[in-house]
Amino acid sequence: MNYALKMKNYIDEHRIESKKSALKTTMTIQASELNAGGPNYTRTLHIPKFYTQEDKKRFESIVDTMYQIFSKVIKAYQSDEEIRKLFGFSKELEELILLKPRYDSLIPICRVDIFYDEKTKEFGFCEFNTDGTSAMNENKRLNEFLSLNNAFMALDTDFEIMELVNTWVDVFLKICHTDPKLKEKPNIAIVDFLDKAYLNELYVFERVFKEKGYQCEVVDIRNLEYRDHKLWSTKSGMQLDVIYRRAVTKDVMENLELVKDFIDAIKADDVSIIGAFQTQLIHHKCINQVLLDPLMQKYFTQEEVAYIEKHLPKTYDLTKDVADMIKEDKNQWIIKPKDSYAAKGVWAGVDLNTEEWKHEVEHWIDKDYIAQEYITPYKTENIDLVNYDDYQMYSNLTGLYVYDGKFAGVYSRLSDSGIISTQYNEKTVPTLFIKEES
C-alpha cells in the first residue's frame, strides 16, 4: 500500500483540519527541546517517510559492507605508513589517531548519508559522519509528534519505529563494558565546545544516562582538568572515567592549547574516549579519494572495490586544473571543505548561476577544498502546510545510523534546493518502516 499517497488524499479532503494539524505540530516543536532559540527550530513536512522491509534490508546491507571497508581503512592506517601518507594529516593529529582505544569497537557511532532511489533501490554516497554524529533525539521526537498529525492518525496502521536515543545509550554502555579498565558504572562526561554544540540534544542524553543509574554531565571540553592521573570536570568536581566525544576533530585541532588537559589524559590512557580519534579517518572528506586509491584498494576484496567504484562520487582536490575542468559544467559538480560539518562552506553548482559558480570555484582553489561529482537526489512530493497550500518536489537525503557496526535507524531530510542541510532550507520528517504484510 502507498501510505504517502493515502495521506496526500486525506490532506486534500481535509485541508483546513490538516493545516491546523501542521500548525499544532510546529507549535509543539517550538515549545520543545527541538527549538534552539529564535528561528532555530526543526522544520518538518506533513507526510513522513515510509520505508518497506525490503528497504530496511538494503540499508542493513549497505551498513554491513561499509563498516567492513571502514574497519580495513582504520587497521591499514595503524599498520601501514604509506596509507598514512594518503591522508596527509599533521603529526599531532596522526599521533591522536594512532592511539588505540581499550574497548572493542572501531567506530562506535556513524551516520552514512546516501542518495537513495526508492524505486530502483540504487544509491550514491553523500558523506560519512562519525565526529559529532547528532539528530538522534530530533528523529525520536518527530516520531512522537506524529500523534498530532491528522492524516497520519487517519491511517490507523501500526508501523515499526527505530528509536535512536535509548538505543544509542545502551550501545554506548555495552561498548564501555568491553573496556577492562572501566568500573561497572563509570562516570560519564558528554563533551563538546558548548558554544557550537547541538546543546539541547546533549542534555537529553545526559538525562537518559542518569535515568539508567549513571553519573553523567554535559561539560565544555575546555572545562576539564587533568591531575593525579585522573580527568576532572571543573564544572562539578566529578572525576571522569569515560568521555562521550561530540566535539569534532577539526574544532579540537584548532584549539589544542585550550583542550590540553583533555588531550593529555587521552595520551596517558587515563580516560576512555568514545569515539576515539581514529574515527576521523572516515569523517574527513579525503576518505573518498583514499577509498579509490590503488594503495588503499590492495586491502579490499575485488567485490569491495567494485562496490566503492559504483557508489562513490568522483572526488578531486580543488586545484587550478580541476577548477578549469568543472567551471563550465556547473550542474555536475559540488565543492566542499575537506574537513567540515553541517554543510558549512558547501556550494552546489545547481544552486548558483554561471557567474556565481565560477566565482566560488575560483575563490576556493588550493584552500583545502574538494570538487565532487554531484549526484542528483531522488525527489518525492510533500507539503509544508504551515507556509504553503501546494505540494512541492523535495530532494531526499537518507542518513543511515550505524551503532557499533549495526544499522540502527534512518534520519530523513528533504530540501527544495541542491544542498540538503539546515542552512539550505532543510526539512526533517519522521521515518517509519512498514511491517510485513500478510
List the helices and strands and how they pair.
Elements: H1 3-13, H2 15-30, E1 49-51, H3 53-79, H4 81-87, H5 91-97, E2 109-116, E3 123-129, H6 136-144, H7 150-153, H8 165-176, E4 188-192, H9 199-211, E5 216-220, E6 224-227, E7 230-233, E8 239-240, E9 242-245, H10 249-253, H11 260-267, E10 272-274, H12 280-283, H13 287-291, H14 294-297, H15 302-311, E11 315-317, H16 320-326, E12 333-337, E13 347-348, H17 354-363, E14 369-373, E15 379-382, E16 392-403, E17 406-415, E18 427-429, E19 431-433
Helix pairs in contact: 3-4
What does this 3D model show about the protein?
- The protein is α+β, with helices and mostly antiparallel strands and 438 residues long.
- The relative contact order is 0.18.
- The two termini are 12 Å apart.
- The mean pLDDT is 93.
- It contains 17 helices and 19 strands.
- It has two domains: 3-285 and 379-433, Glutathione synthase, substrate-binding domain superfamily, eukaryotic (Rossmann fold, 3-Layer(aba) Sandwich), CATH 3.40.50; 314-374, Dna Ligase, domain 1 (2-Layer Sandwich).
- Strands 2, 3, 15, 16, 17 and 18 form a six-stranded antiparallel β-sheet that branches.
- It is globular, with a radius of gyration of 22 Å.
- The longest helix has 27 residues, at 53-79.
